[in-house]
């Protein structure tokens, strides 16, 4: 089990932030063996695919340089011209293979871990210049792993090379009796197939190294319980800071709620412990009354005070006040089960307004037994 520098076991899975930070630092899984196999296979495949053209170009270079006239031999400038011409022909001949190797050498590293450019990897690290750190890396578990992989590659290549040479011994001996042109082409074919088989043998090393690198990278990112807690505090904020933010949010919400109380049609109270402010405006398309404000104790007192100041009708209905308080959120319509009870309250309020305006008689006092469903009733 991996341990941190503090000695604690890394038992927790890495968080998304830990993975992002590691990627920004360039700490991702990479397999050198996968890159080596891809490049060697591409080189061997390119040699087989373009070997014929390469052999023909090589023969052409040999004919050009071995069939010189007396005038060219005595000309001091001829050697430079022949060298330049031979170099151009050789470059054009190997160009397809070089392009293939360039593409594979770029694609192979990003096959595991994806494309990544990290500036932190380019920064000089003076800790690497410390001889003690170098000795420690030489005798580390990672160094031992690399040594074992190198020895395994040596054994695999040795075994494959011996098998290939044994199988191709007749073809190799036959090359000595072939014409020069045929021998060159045949030699390139033998070399290409031999390189391809030896590269294919390295697939065994890469197949073991890729999952090992993934496991090692994941294991390195694991965290201790304390690291998870510290990261949570850093990302989410300290508890006292979050508490202060929630307090400010509550205060802002209360200020908005209190500012809406003067727009209410009625304030229903407990009479002292609960207070809810309702508004009903059918012209706004509302199907039911809207809860503008609610609160208990001190908040309920402030709602009543603002209601008195702005001449909002205040009615006492303990059961209805408690039912609305517990069943309805701010700026939400009351539930359907309270429609009938609230409708009686609003009807009474509108009748009071008509009476005060001299347009009707004084309404009968509001009944205490308003129709409140049992599932919405709160006894205390």
UniProtKB/TrEMBL annotation:
<feature type="compositionally biased region" description="Basic and acidic residues">
    <location>
        <begin position="361"/>
        <end position="380"/>
    </location>
</feature>
<protein>
    <recommendedName>
        <fullName>Flagellar biosynthetic protein FlhB</fullName>
    </recommendedName>
</protein>
<dbReference type="GO" id="GO:0009306">
    <property type="term" value="P:protein secretion"/>
</dbReference>
<keyword id="KW-1003">Cell membrane</keyword>
<dbReference type="InterPro" id="IPR029025">
    <property type="entry name" value="T3SS_substrate_exporter_C"/>
</dbReference>
<feature type="transmembrane region" description="Helical">
    <location>
        <begin position="143"/>
        <end position="166"/>
    </location>
</feature>
<feature type="region of interest" description="Disordered">
    <location>
        <begin position="1"/>
        <end position="26"/>
    </location>
</feature>
<feature type="transmembrane region" description="Helical">
    <location>
        <begin position="195"/>
        <end position="215"/>
    </location>
</feature>
<comment type="function">
    <text>Required for formation of the rod structure in the basal body of the flagellar apparatus. Together with FliI and FliH, may constitute the export apparatus of flagellin.</text>
</comment>
<comment type="similarity">
    <text>Belongs to the type III secretion exporter family.</text>
</comment>
<keyword id="KW-1133">Transmembrane helix</keyword>
<feature type="region of interest" description="Disordered">
    <location>
        <begin position="360"/>
        <end position="380"/>
    </location>
</feature>
<dbReference type="GO" id="GO:0005886">
    <property type="term" value="C:plasma membrane"/>
</dbReference>
<feature type="transmembrane region" description="Helical">
    <location>
        <begin position="34"/>
        <end position="55"/>
    </location>
</feature>
<dbReference type="InterPro" id="IPR006136">
    <property type="entry name" value="FlhB"/>
</dbReference>
<dbReference type="Pfam" id="PF01312">
    <property type="entry name" value="Bac_export_2"/>
</dbReference>
<feature type="compositionally biased region" description="Basic and acidic residues">
    <location>
        <begin position="7"/>
        <end position="26"/>
    </location>
</feature>
<keyword id="KW-0813">Transport</keyword>
<keyword id="KW-0966">Cell projection</keyword>
<keyword id="KW-0812">Transmembrane</keyword>
<keyword id="KW-0969">Cilium</keyword>
<keyword id="KW-1006">Bacterial flagellum protein export</keyword>
<keyword id="KW-0653">Protein transport</keyword>
<keyword id="KW-0472">Membrane</keyword>
<dbReference type="InterPro" id="IPR006135">
    <property type="entry name" value="T3SS_substrate_exporter"/>
</dbReference>
<feature type="transmembrane region" description="Helical">
    <location>
        <begin position="97"/>
        <end position="122"/>
    </location>
</feature>
<keyword id="KW-1005">Bacterial flagellum biogenesis</keyword>
<keyword id="KW-0282">Flagellum</keyword>
<dbReference type="GO" id="GO:0044780">
    <property type="term" value="P:bacterial-type flagellum assembly"/>
</dbReference>
